[in-house]
């Protein structure tokens, strides 16, 4: 099996239904579960390894250019970071540039 750092370090765009309106506010935020699903999809597609413990932050504003990190355990128990950058927001759809590397 290839190591995640070797394969998934390339930028990959993933569309995901991952925006949620924040209460009465006019700002939308990224759903942590939606972002985590994007990480799982990218890592699985690129490496064949399916992370089961992806954790992404709450409260990230869904706007182009926003960046945040998600964390997960990779093969052999190695901790990884998925750097997430929002590249497009269309309605409830958010596209990310996802780059992973060991933390």
UniProtKB/TrEMBL annotation:
Pfam families according to UniProt: DUF4333 (PF14230)
Signal peptide location: 1-21
Full protein name: DUF4333 domain-containing protein
Domain DUF4333: 20-91
InterPro entries in the record: DUF4333
Keywords in alphabetical order: Signal
